[in-house]
Design a protein that fits this description.
By secondary structure, the protein is mostly beta strands. The protein has one domain: Roll (Pnp Oxidase, Chain A). 12% of the residues lie in helices and 33% in strands. 27% of the residues are buried. The site of flavin mononucleotide has 17 residues, from β3 and α2.
């Protein structure tokens, strides 16, 4: 039985949410339930040459062949955020992996800065030259995907940014026998709000044939 409250609460505490009856954002619900999310730490260079860096956790692999990554900026109060705007204007970006040692710096780069100021400098992060694209990668990031823009797709108040991977940088500290070693990648994921999760508490399941 539905309780009729604005959140669709029931007497048991369960929620039955009829989205058509809601005029507020489902952001909190979506970002609390779709967890943990990997974090794309995206570097771009604006047309004026300023290096931009920002985290996006609405992020996944969109395709393997061709290799395409996807992240989804939600429009800010002024419309398109800097990252999707730079990706649209220059056709290039780099997705940097966030590991625990970089988590605080990553968080710092989510601040809104005045035009002309780079989040790299604000967070004291060293740049490294990319190989296939113009924007720099985060030097301390263990894996970086250099991408050229594949497509931009409007979905209501969000923009899906799809990037085709052109070059991958993998730090030697996360490789074993010439392959990326998942046991060495201390990636962090995002939960809701200011909560994050580590990826070093693991278990395995064999897939059925
Ligand atoms: C861990 C983390 C994940 C985030 N994920 C997203 C996201 O998926 N979509 C989004 O629009 N904003 C996200 N944000 C907020 C943006 O990082 C923030 O709006 C930032 O200022 C955007 O910078 P830009 O305008 O330079 O692109 C996230 C922030 C943090 C700290």
């Amino acid at each position: 039985m539905t309780g009729g409250g604005p959140a669709g609460g029931t007497e048991t505490g369960a929620l039955e949410i009829d989205v058509d009856d809601r005029d507020d954002s489902l952001y909190r619900l979506l970002s609390s339930a779709v967890v943990p999310r990997p974090i794309a730490w995206v570097s771009t260079r604006c047309e004026d040459g300023v290096d931009n860096l920002a985290p996006y956790s609405f992020f996944t692999v969109a395709s393997v062949a061709p290799p395409v990554l996807l992240f989804a900026p939600v429009d800010g109060t002024d419309g398109l955020k800097d990252t999707p705007r730079n990706a649209r204007d220059t056709g290039e970006f780099v997705v940097n992996l966030v590991t625990e040692d970089l988590a605080e710096a990553m968080n710092e780069t989510s601040a809104t800065l005045p035009a002309g100021e780079s989040e790299f400098d604000r967070a004291g992060l060293e740049r490294a030259d990319s190989v296939a694209v113009d924007p720099p990668r985060v030097a301390g990031s263990k894996v970086a995907f250099e991408c050229s823009l594949h497509d931009l797709i409007d979905v209501g108040g969000s923009t899906l940014v799809l990037g085709e991977v052109r070059h991958v940088h993998v730090d030697e500290s996360v490789t074993t026998d010439g392959k990326i070693d998942v046991d060495e990648i201390e990636a962090v994921g995002r939960l809701a709000g200011s909560q994050y999760v580590r990826t070093d508490d693991r278990f395995s399941l064999e897939r059925p044939p």
